[in-house]
Amino acid sequence: MHDQELIACHDCDLLQRLPDLRTGQKARCLRCNATLGLRPKDSLNRSLSLTITALVLFVLANTFPFLSLTLQGQLVESTLISGALSLLEAGNPWLSSLVLLTTLIFPLMNLCALLYVLLSLRFNYGAERVRSLYRLITYARPWAMLEVMLLAALVAGVKLGDYATVITGFALYCFIALILILAAIDNTLDPRLIWRYVKQQEQL
Questions:
Q1: What mean pLDDT is predicted for residues 28-34?
Q2: Phi, psi at residue 112, to the nearest 5°?
Q3: Which CA distances in Å does 118 have to 6, 49, 55, 75, 178?
């Protein structure tokens, strides 16, 4: 019964013991019926493959043009990084830094840290860094605001459509796919696998 652990419901704060779960099973709160935990099928391998896919999409989304504008015969291409640089040139260093952190640095840091954690579990190495890296992922995740960036870009594209011809770039589609992949990782990854691995390594 080593998997049984006390957990507080994130909706109603009821403290209860999480039972052992088989693959595909889900535990719900006794009071409010909120999901407390689940055991996805082949969580480790699926999460690892999705994380690698997300990293590839992240590189593509930051390499190719995000949106292109045609105004008075001139073509202007923009990337995610160029948006932060434009804010810096416009005299907004703090806003530029915030955009750079939330759309580039924190998301990339989270993906690289998650890849290291999953590879550590998959090949049983580097266990001494798993605990600190996974805590870092948990703390930094709210600052990786890719969804907000996508929404802002779409709104800006619609508004600029009244003044110029807006052309969606390859990076935009990669960015949308990246957000979907990140959502799939959240549904596939079982955090208890990571903490069990940490405990097992500490007992060795």
A1: 83
A2: -65, -40
A3: 24, 10, 14, 42, 18
Are 53 and 181 contacting, i.e. CB atoms less than 8 angstroms apart? Answer: yes
Q: What is the pLDDT averaged over residues 135-147? A: 79
Q: Which long-range contacts (CB under 8 A, 24 or more apart) does 170-174 make?
A: 170/60, 170/64, 170/65, 171/60, 171/61, 171/62, 171/63, 171/64, 171/65, 171/66, 171/79, 171/80, 172/61, 172/66, 172/67, 174/57, 174/60, 174/61, 174/64
Instruction: Fill in the DSSP letter of residue 166.
Output: E
pLDDT range class, residue 34, cuts 50, 70, 90: confident
Residue-range domains of the chain with CATH: 1-39 (no CATH), 42-203 (1.20.140)
Taking the C-alpha atoms of residue 148 and residue 129, their distance in angstroms, rounded to an integer, is 30
Longest dimension (CA), the chain: 70
- 148 confidence band (pLDDT: 50, 70, 90): confident
pLDDT in tens, 49-98: 999 999 999 999 888 887 777 766 666 677 777 777 877 887 888 878 88
Query: pTM of this prediction?
Result: 0.77
Distance in Å from the first CA to the final CA of the chain: 19
Beta-strand (E) ranges in 12-123? Answer: 15-18, 26-28, 35-38, 67-71, 74-78
